[in-house]
Design goal:
4-stranded antiparallel beta sheet; mainly beta; single chain; 1 helix; 15 strands
Length: about 210
């Protein structure tokens, strides 16, 4: 079992070996506490903080036993980390994994949702929404602040993380390539093996 989650200043990873008594099939006769769980890894990854709760995700590849993590920090930079999860036959580890910053900066007016990472940890997609105002004026910069209509451009972004190189980040698709408006997308999911991105729209349709 892998337990993972962010705190204010670190991402915590705990890997536990489940006792055989919990993996056997059949009816259970009690619900007593489990006392023979083996801790395989205590891993704390220091971070500056998260941009917000929606800007963190992870993926696990059972073939390579690699746990990949992806997040936007509160400094608006894009970060990745990779942990090899030990198996039950190895000694416990307390490795601290250093995060890697990539040269992609999330603008102060942008927010991220539906952050998806493929299980290899090499490809990701997400929705990026940017708060803008018609005429190029922000609410604070306009004279009255009431005549500018707020608009929210939405971009479907993709990233590729080479093993020994800088992240390649850009738009996956533009609006003219789609039978719907990018702003109608409410959620996104990503199947890396098939190379397929599925979008859920505000009207309930799935593309």
């Amino acid at each position: 079992v892998i337990l993972i989650g962010p705190t204010e200043k670190m991402i915590v990873v705990r890997v536990l070996a489940i006792p055989a008594s919990l993996t056997t099939t059949g009816p259970r006769t009690n619900s007593s506490p489990v006392t023979d769980t083996k801790i395989l890894a205590n891993i704390d990854i220091p971070i500056h903080g998260l941009a917000d709760a929606t800007t963190f995700t992870y993926a696990y590849d059972p073939d390579t036993r690699a746990l990949s993590l992806l997040w936007f920090g509160d400094d608006r930079n894009l970060y990745t980390a990779r942990v090899v999860v030990p198996d039950s036959g190895t000694s416990p580890t307390t490795a601290i994994v250093a995060a890697r910053a990539h040269q992609y900066f999330l603008s102060p007016d942008a927010s991220v949702s539906s952050l998806c990472l493929g299980r290899s940890g090499r490809r990701a997609v997400w929705l990026e929404r940017v708060d803008e105002y018609e005429g190029g004026l922000s609410d604070e910069d306009s004279e009255d602040g009431e005549d500018d209509e707020a608009i929210e451009p939405v971009y479907l972004m993709r990233a590729h993380f080479p093993p020994d190189g800088e992240a390649l980040v850009g738009e996956l698709l533009e609006t003219e390539d789609l039978p719907f408006e990018m702003g109608d997308i409410m959620s996104v999911t990503f199947d890396e093996a098939l190379g397929r991105v599925v979008c859920g729209l505000v009207n309930g349709q799935v593309w």
